[in-house]
Design a protein that fits this description.
Layout lengths: L1 H24 L2 H15 L14 H9 L3 E13 L12 E2 L15 E15 L3 E4 L1 H4 L7 E6 L6 E11 L4 E6 L23 E6 L9 E18 L4 E11 L11 E3 L5 E9 L6 E5 H14 L5 E2 L2 E5 L2 H6 L8 E6 L4 H5 L6 E5 L2 E2 L3 H9 L6 E8 L2 E8 L1 E2 L6
Antiparallel strand pairs: 1-3, 1-5, 2-12, 3-4, 4-7, 5-6, 6-7, 8-9, 8-11, 9-10, 10-13, 11-12, 12-13, 14-21, 15-16, 16-17, 17-18, 17-19, 19-20
């Protein structure tokens, strides 16, 4: 019996040893496949990069960007004004960032007043080319005196500057610092606002409320893209519509207008332009890509040309379909033709229905507006119209939209 027991123990031991060796000899892929479910559950998610990886990243960006951010002051020609023209706070929730200063509001007699405005800007070329807002500096030839204050190492001084290009509708202006000494200025790189993502960090640098708080740095996030706001312009008496703006909660105030909105790489992605005065943390910036598209034209020609057809038009309603006996509601109807416009020269008339421009079908007013934007002043386009039940084609040479209509 003892021998049998010993034999059984030996056999069991041999079997266990062989089984253990076989398990160790299995391919690793088999083991990995068996253990994958447990590892998948227990594996921690991949850590995202945080600002805490470099707690001084904002400070680093501000240190590099601040010297290229400038304070701009403008003195306008003196004029005799009545005190009732003094501008009091507007009910417009979207205030621009500069103030006009008049004399004693209680002095009732006409007097000579010096009107000033101020804002921010940033240098984009070593020769001293500055990008800012048009509403800060106005347009070329208006008699204003522009001073740019640079606060870069070795260049701490005031420079005179002149406008080399501006556009009211885009609210963009390009200045040239009068650089008599041939100074080399610090610059800011221009980023890609189309690539910006909602929720990413943004940094605003500017001069809120003048030189007293110059080079103020604030931080927030890109709150939204594609915003549209309407601002009443008390100077022109017109409303200005801003489209496709970037919204940020980085604190910006009067005087920041024209300053840079930076991403976490230190690139300019927007130009601070407007703020909602009745809310907190709601500011707006012009996407830098808008400026990049017209920058060369502003510098070389001094303005931005806007392709223009020269008609007033609207979408086709059921009533218009019945009145004009149209087959459907496709296209836009011409309500009026501007005298002396490209449309008049091409023979367009009121009640014509534009159905097609070149190779694109037109269904709505937005379609027509978007299609015109694709071309340049001087381009020829083929327009297909429906007039009196018959289809016709007209060739139109697009003109440059007058400033009064922009």
């Amino acid at each position: 019996m003892r021998k049998r027991i010993v034999s059984v123990v030996i056999v069991v031991a041999v079997i266990l040893a062989v089984a253990g060796a076989a398990v160790n000899l299995l391919p690793r892929s088999t083991m990995a496949a068996q253990e994958a479910p447990a590892a998948e559950v227990q594996s921690p998610s991949r850590a995202l990069p945080l600002l805490s990886d470099n707690p001084y990243i904002i400070a680093d960006i501000a240190e590099v960007a601040s010297p290229a951010t400038v304070y701009i002051s403008v003195e306008w020609p003196s004029e005799t004004v009545e005190t009732y023209r003094r501008q009091y706070p507007s009910i417009d929730p979207f205030g621009s960032f500069f103030d006009y200063f008049f004399g004693d509001p209680f002095f009732s007699q006409p007097q000579q007043q010096i009107i000033t405005s101020a804002g921010s800007g940033f240098i984009i070329d070593e020769s001293g080319i500055v990008l800012t807002n048009q509403h800060v500096v106005g347009n070329k030839g208006e008699g204003q005196t522009i001073t740019v204050v640079v606060d870069a190492p070795g260049l701490e001084r005031e420079y005179k500057a002149e406008i080399i290009g501006s556009d009211y509708s885009l609210d963009l202006a390009v200045l040239q610092i009068i650089n008599e000494n041939g100074d080399v200025f610090p610059t800011l790189p221009l980023g890609d606002s189309d690539a910006s993502r909602v929720g990413e960090w943004t940094i605003a640098i500017g001069n809120p409320y003048g030189r007293e708080f110059e080079h103020t740095v604030t931080v927030g996030v890109l709150s939204a893209k594609g915003r549209e706001i309407t601002v009443y312009d008390s100077e022109s008496g017109r409303t200005k519509v801003y489209k496709n703006l970037m919204q940020t909660d980085a604190a910006i105030n009067r005087g920041n207008s024209g300053g840079p909105l930076l991403n976490i790489k230190g690139e300019v992605v927007g130009i601070n332009t407007a703020v909602h005065s009745q809310a907190q943390g709601i500011g707006f910036a012009i996407p830098i890509n808008v400026a990049k598209e017209v920058l060369d034209e502003l510098i070389t020609t001094g303005s931005v040309s806007v392709p223009w057809l020269g008609i007033w038009y609207q979408n086709i309603t059921e009533n218009i379909v019945r009145q004009l006996s149209l087959p459907d509601d496709k296209g836009v109807v011409v309500m009026d033709v501007v005298k002396g416009s490209p449309a008049e020269a091409a023979g367009l008339k009121a009640w014509d229905v534009i159905r097609r421009m070149n190779d694109r079908d037109i269904f709505t007013t937005d379609d027509l507006a978007d299609e015109i934007k694709k071309y340049k002043t001087g381009d020829e386009v083929l327009i297909t119209i429906l007039r009196g039940g018959r289809m016709q084609m007209l060739t139109v040479t697009l003109g440059n939209k007058p400033d009064s209509l922009r």
